Model the fold of this input.
Amino acid sequence: MSAANVPGGYGEAARVLVVDDDPTVAEVVSGYLDRAGYLVDRAADGPSALARAAAHRPDLVVLDLMLPGMDGLEVCRRMRGHGPVPVIMLTARGDEDDRILGLEVGADDYVTKPFSPRELVLRVESVLRRSRPAPAARPLATAGLAIDPAARRATKHGEELALTIREFDLLAFFLRHPGRAYSREDLMREVWGWDFGDLSTVTVHVRRLRGKVEDDPASPRLIQTVWGVGYRFDGTSREEAVRP
Done:
C-alpha cells in the first residue's frame, strides 16, 4: 500500500466515502479505489451519506453534486459542520458557476464527468497526502497569524481558523514566501501539485482565505492582488516570520 493511502501516517488504510446515485459510476469509482488500497463505503443519497459518515468518519469523501433530495452542496455543508473532512466533488455540469459553488462550500477539489477513474484516484491520493501532518515542519507566525503544520492548525490573534485542507496549504505557502508575487499557475503547481487545471480553483480559494484572515476582505492588506501577475502576501518582512 502506498504512503498516500495512509492518512496521518498512522499505518491504517484511508477510508473513502463514495456518494453517487448512479450505481455504475459508484461501482466503477469504488472498484478503482478498492484496488488502490482504500477502504470504501458507498451511499446513493444525501441522508445515507450523512448517516454513513456519522457511523464511520471518512478520511475523504467523493461526492456527487447532483443527488436526489439533498444536493451535494448541502451534504458538504452538513458534513463540514461536524468537523473537517476532505471532499472531492463530482459534477456532470460543465458550467463554471457550478464548479465554483462546490469550491465555495469547501470542496478541496472537483472532477467533471465524464472522468478517468485513474485520474480520480490520483486526485484522492493528492488530497490525502496534503491532509497528513508534516512533523518536520516548524510553526510559522506573522501579522497576527500562526500556523502549526504538524497539527495542521491555524489561528488569527489566538482564535482558531476553520480552514479547508487547500486553504491551510495556501496560507502556509504564503507565510513561507512573503513579499513575492506568484501567478495562479505558480500557486496551482506549488500548493495543489498540479501542472495544469482550472485556474478559477486558485481564485476561489484566495477569496475564501481572504474572508477568514483579512480584517476587511473587500480591501485585503495581507493577500494582495498584483495586477497582471497574481497574488503576494504582504503581512510582514521576511525576517519577522518564523520559518521552517
User: Anything to note?
Assistant: The first strand starts at residue 15 and ends at 19. Residues 210 and 217 are 5 Å apart (CA to CA). Residues 1-10, 237-244 have pLDDT under 50 and may be disordered. The first helix runs from residue 23 to 35.
